[in-house]
Specification:
Elements (H helix, E strand, L loop, with lengths): L1 E5 L3 H12 L3 E5 L2 H10 L1 E5 L4 E4 L2 E4 L10 E4 L6 H4 L13 E3 L29 H6 L4 E6 L2 E6 L2 E6 L3 E5 L6 H12 L10 H22 L3 H6 L1 H20 L8 H11 L5 H8 L5 H14 L5 H20 L12
Parallel strand pairs: 1-2, 1-6, 2-5, 3-10, 6-7, 7-8
Antiparallel strand pairs: 3-4, 8-11, 9-10
């Protein structure tokens, strides 16, 4: 298949490399140092067991129009970056080209083909003014939940920590021909790619942790392991997750694991920096609205208070604002000897 991955950061780069190595025709849309590195030396993935792969069969460009019409388009960038690329996406789309969304958090399409009183509602936190919804609609979209833990340690180099699962779902839960073909393509590349009947349940399973661990890690500069093993932050995460679960269940979501098991799963990932902490340390914008603001918006829609989440959101928003105003990154570094 011809596959275009728009935004080849840690997750997008990992997908691109494995798909190309499996024989798919892969193009990545990247910019800056990443673009230069991939053009110069290919796309490298380093695995936690010490293995390395270097993929030169990936085309890289910073111009979406240069990629041409694709069989599949994967949006691999962060949620707050989607609106900026939407005007250029038609150059990639044939009549039947699906658009696969891998963004963390509540997606802009959450209430599309949802049914019930909120059908078709746009969420201001993730799609202000409904710009993305107006451009893409819901028919092309396939939801995807990316579970692997990866980091972009240097331009063109992805560090894969753990996980190979990318859950897939049509917005209405149908087991369509196109989603089965997409699942098979990912399986050929070595991924776990189950087709799920309710993608929103899967969204919340991952978001359950992201809405708590990500902002806590950004504020404390602690890894998942550290947050879960420090009693005060473990308790805070549990309180936030309880609030989020209450909101989700009012929207018909079913949680298939217990809260304690979800926290234990995060702890088992080990000394991994969340994506939000990685962005704070690098001086990049953070996914605060998709991971936290959207949950609070859904809380307002369902008349559900979430005081712990509100407090963490306020502190993290101010941290992001302070760093952006100073043009700075925020890192914990060893003290230098005088």
């Amino acid at each position: 298949m011809k596959v275009c991955i728009v935004g080849a950061g840690a997750i997008g780069g990992y997908l691109a490399a494995e798909l190309a190595n499996a024989g798919e025709d892969v193009t990545v849309i990247v910019r800056g140092a990443n673009l230069a590195a991939i053009r110069r030396q290919g796309l490298q993935v380093t695995y936690s067991d010490g293995r390395e792969t270097l993929t030169s069969a990936v085309r890289a460009t910073d111009r979406i129009a240069d990629a041409g019409v694709q069989d599949v388009v994967v949006l691999g960038m962060k949620a707050h970056q989607v609106a900026a690329v939407v005007p250029d996406l038609p150059a990639l789309l044939g009549p039947d080209t699906p658009v696969v969304t891998t963004q963390n958090g509540i997606p802009w399409w959450y209430f599309f083909k949802h049914g019930g009183e909120h059908e078709g509602r746009c969420l201001e936190s993730v799609d202000p003014g409904g710009t993305i919804a107006a451009a893409l609609g819901g028919d092309r979209v396939i939801g995807c939940i990316a579970y692997p833990a990866c980091e972009m340690r240097e331009p063109g180099v992805v560090w894969h920590i753990e996980g190979t699962r990318f859950s897939l779902g049509e917005l209405d839960g149908a087991a369509t021909v196109r989603i089965r073909a997409l699942s098979e393509m990912l399986r050929r590349a070595g991924f776990k790619a189950p087709v799920v009947s309710d993608i929103r349940d899967e969204i919340w399973l991952k978001l359950w942790g992201n809405s708590s661990f990500n902002p806590i890690s950004a504020l404390t500069h602690a890894t998942l392991e550290d947050i879960c093993r420090f009693p005060a932050t473990r308790s805070l995460a549990a309180n936030i997750m309880t609030e989020a679960r209450t909101i989700a269940e009012k929207l018909g979501v079913r949680f298939k694991v217990t809260l304690d098991k979800r926290i234990a799963g995060a702890e088992a990932v080990g000394p991994h920096k969340t994506s939000m902490l990685q962005d704070i340390e690098a001086g990049r914008p953070i996914e605060l609205e998709a991971l936290v603001g959207s949950v609070l918006e859904l809380g307002r829609i369902t008349d559900t208070p979430a005081p712990a989440l509100e407090a963490v959101y306020a502190c993290t928003a101010l941290l992001a604002r302070t760093a952006a105003a100073a043009g700075a990154r925020v890192r914990v570094e060893p003290l230098r000897a005088p």
